[in-house]
Amino acid sequence: MEKRVPETVSTKPINFKAKLKIIGPGIILAATGIGSGDLVTSTVAGADFGMVLAWAVIIGVSLKLLLSEGVARWTLATGKTILEGWRLLGRWTMGYFVIYVTLFGLIYGAAIGTACGIMMHAMLPVIPVWAWAIIHSIAGFLLIWFGRYKIFERVIIVLIGTMFVTVVGSAIMLIPSLRTVPWEAFSLGIPDGSLFRILGIIGGIGGTLALASYGYWIREKGWRDASWLPIMRLDASFAYIMTGIFSISLMLVSTQFLYGGSVSFEGAQGMRDFLNIYGENFGSVPQLILNIGFWAATCSSLIGSWNGIPYLFADFIRIMKKNKKKKELTQSSNGNPVSIKDPAYKFFLAWLTFPSMLLYIFNQPIGLVLLYAALGSAFIPFLAITLLYLLNSRYVTKQFKNNFFQNAALVFVIVVFVTLGINEFM
């Protein structure tokens, strides 16, 4: 494979301020992970329980940080991608992955396109939701097909900045009026009947396949060996701090005027009803501002996924070809193992975009989002189990292996997400 110079060749910064200037993959990770799942779970939790379950957000982002850091640590410490690590565990991992990513790509492509369509339709109801969904999917396809990493990163930064200015800004503006909310809404705890809501918050925050894509984004940034680990950890931590602030802000907004009521929401389409109620309470301009934030959240998730998930599929094809030629799997990849120019990358980008449009004819936007959530719950235990093995294996030197607390946390992730996955599929 032809060696390719990364678009962003980074020089290691010395001080904290310099490190902050070069973070980027974490912003993409946050923007991709914050999607319709975060919007729904945080808003519904605020309506049902107020801020009582804010602690679950902190646990959720901490666990997703654990997984993202594990993927990136494996990549930087060994020089191998997470797909190469999975292949070392046996053929079954490749079988699981290709079935999962193929089905996930079809369902997720329709679900996130629908979520974007719903948010845009709430602002501009001039065409149906399915038409807006198609427009967003094709726009994302064109941006990734013809764009480069640097352009993609800049678009993501604009979108996530819009998300924070609108959603977090709305939450800050509502703080003075929280005095009218009963004090019990701020008493952290585990209310009766909240178990699966807690699991939903923990599972819904921070994305699924985006966690595995993080290893490819750091390569695009030019971070290629273990010396970049401190900067990667700062970058990933920044991503999930942003995710936590965003989710808690949503919870705060819904707590202010929905806590204690009988209003219920289901799926991404329920967010349109939420926006209408918000507008009735605070006016059309605040409603539009919050709507823009919701649209930016879903749109950034679409673009990030359109860029990130095809890396995984392209790497899968590369490894299968490598295995067929009986090349040594334990050797590290030199440079970027795959690029956006690879035919397999472009094939899966098209798979995310076009076949999923056929699902729009069923006109079941809520069902698509719920099915995507169920599929997401099936991937996290797989990632946690494989990281538990790989980061304790002979392929990782002692200084980069898991410690006791990281191993315990991965076991906790497996238990939580297996439970959540069973609940979602039921």
Structure report:
Helix 4 crosses helix 15 (365-390) and helix 8 runs antiparallel to helix 13 (284-324). The protein starts with 15 loop residues before the first helix and ends with a helix. The chain has helices at 16-22, 25-33, 36-49, 54-78, 82-88, 91-123, 129-146, 149-174, 195-204, 209-221, 229-258, 270-282, 284-324, 343-353, 365-390, 404-425. It is mainly α and 426 residues long. The longest helix is centred in the C-terminal third of the chain and has 41 residues, at 284-324. Residues 1-9 have low confidence and may be disordered. 72% of the residues lie in helices and 0% in strands.
Overall mean pLDDT: 84
Radius of gyration: 21 Å
SSE string, helices as H and strands as E: HHHHHHHHHHHHHHHH
Low-confidence stretches: 1-9
Category by helix and strand content: mainly alpha
Give the biggest beta sheet: none
Proportion in helices: over 70%
Distance between the termini: 45 Å
Please report the number of helical segments: 16
Query: Shape, please?
Result: globular
Number of E-state strands: 0
Query: Strand share of the residues?
Result: under 5%
Q: What's the short story on this structure?
A:
The protein has 426 residues and is mainly alpha-helical. It contains 16 helices and no strands.
Question: Which secondary structure elements does this structure contain, and how are they paired or packed?
Answer:
Layout: H1 16-22, H2 25-33, H3 36-49, H4 54-78, H5 82-88, H6 91-123, H7 129-146, H8 149-174, H9 195-204, H10 209-221, H11 229-258, H12 270-282, H13 284-324, H14 343-353, H15 365-390, H16 404-425
